[in-house]
Amino acid sequence: MAELKEARVPDIGGYDDVPVIEVLVAVGDSVAKDQGLITLESDKATMEVPAPFAGVIKELKVKVGDALSEGSVVAMIEAADAGAAASADKPASAPAPAVIESKDDPIVEPVAPAAKPDNIAEVSIAASQAAQAAEAAPMGAGLPPVRFDAEALLPGKVPYASPAVRLFARELGVDLLQVSGSARGGRISKEDVQNHVKHALQTGGAATAAVGGGGGLNLLPWPKVDFAKFGETETKPLSKIKKISGANLARNWAMIPHVTQHDDADITGLEELRVALNKENEKAGIKLTMLAFIMKASVAALQKFPDFNSSLDASGENLTLKKYFHIGFAADTPNGLVVPVVRDVDRKGVIDIAHETSELAKKARDGKLGPAEMSGGCFSISSLGGIGGTAFTPIVNAPEVAILGVSKSATKPVWDGKQFAPRLILPLSLSYDHRVIDGAAAARFTAYLAQLLGDMRRVLL
Ligand code: COA
């Protein structure tokens, strides 16, 4: 005959008055032996109290928020099998163990004992609490816990969820690292997993990374660290420009699959020309910069490879090809990065381009650029050549599809077929949106650009 039995909180490692944060079953539910009944959460760990035997829940003695200790009655269960109930009807001093998970990583897991005794639960707990865990978790066969380094397996990330939720997620094939927790302290609930699955089904999973999808990245919350604990600090708010450009850069970095193609341009002849022209125009106060030549050469490359002068639409399915050539250039200002745009570069000579870039750069530094002077760009150039460096990875300025990074030119020995000759080499780093541009096209574009800079007469062709 079925027997009504108490399910009590087992040995939970000496914790007292631990709040119930989740009731996993309802009256009338059939439960299997070892199935989680409730989840307790101390400030150090999440613990699941398993059913000591299979049966039907007749009465729940606890609710969310109750504080429980070892021996507290959780539920009255009508045992499915009187024999099992009888064997599970142990004194309160030796009830079924809890499943314990720490909120931190790394994790300690037990070796599955060869002959796993009744109600032995798995244990996961922070290494810092390993000794405590070893005591808290009845190991049955007496095998010691085996440490595994969660940090090594999942660098920087271990999802915070109860064992029942982990099991649920495993059954559905859900990677908990992709799920954001909405419960207290960012803990992932069963509903969070369900919502994640619903969302994935509605949006087609990976398609959420498409342009219009908003990302759906479900990233972990930003780490909150009390730095003052480690030393003196001061708070400095980001400038308005940095806040705006930061948000754009973060979106572009997260949503655009970036690849950067590096190449070198031999600008020995071009630099000679630039120096000669500057000398000729010294009295007129005209200064030709390398940037002006690079802009002009970039437009010639954009004309040859029109996909680089395009934007992807929000559906991620169509390109808008532009028949105009407005080139943005990153300008470093005391308040942060801005990108003024020189319009119709294809119709201007390098002297005009140089004049315009220097005017726009001055306006940028003085904080006097208007929105119209920063809009309409087709392709951007970020030149750090005046500062230094040999290569870098610029971030594509969406909705553009490519950006050229320029580093500092340097004289290098180049083999001319007979001997090494000193040549002035300009490093180019082209980052591009790989959804729009293939690697081969990017290599061709960059090589062509290098060829143009090697002999600017080719721009006329
Ligand atoms: N290699 C070697 N020297 C270079 C060079 C290069 N690629 N590019 C410029 N220089 C030299 C210039 O010839 C100049 O030398 P000079 O004073 O002897 O004539 C010096 O470096 C300073 O040039 P700069 O003032 O940088 O002029 P520019 O026309 O090359 O660049 C800006 C103008 C606006 C792009 C530049 O001032 C700027 O703000 N750069 C930073 C861009 C940035 O922050 N990018 C990062 C985005 S993530």
Automatic annotation (TrEMBL):
Stored SUPFAM superfamilies: CoA-dependent acyltransferases, Peripheral subunit-binding domain of 2-oxo acid dehydrogenase complex, Single hybrid motif
Enzyme Commission identifier(s): 2.3.1.-
Gene3D superfamilies cross-referenced by the UniProt entry: 2.40.50.100, Chloramphenicol acetyltransferase-like domain, E3-binding domain
Domain Peripheral subunit-binding (PSBD) positions: 160-197
Cofactor: (R)-lipoate
Catalytic activity: N(6)-[(R)-dihydrolipoyl]-L-lysyl-[protein] + acetyl-CoA = N(6)-[(R)-S(8)-acetyldihydrolipoyl]-L-lysyl-[protein] + CoA
CDD domains, A to Z: lipoyl_domain (cd06849)
Name of a matching Pfam family: 2-oxoacid_dh
Lipoyl-binding domain segment(s): 4-78
Keyword annotations from UniProtKB, A to Z: Acyltransferase, Lipoyl, Transferase
Oligomeric form and interacting partners: Forms a 24-polypeptide structural core with octahedral symmetry.
Task of the protein: The pyruvate dehydrogenase complex catalyzes the overall conversion of pyruvate to acetyl-CoA and CO(2). It contains multiple copies of three enzymatic components: pyruvate dehydrogenase (E1), dihydrolipoamide acetyltransferase (E2) and lipoamide dehydrogenase (E3).
Similarity remark: Belongs to the 2-oxoacid dehydrogenase family.
Annotated protein name in UniProt: Dihydrolipoamide acetyltransferase component of pyruvate dehydrogenase complex
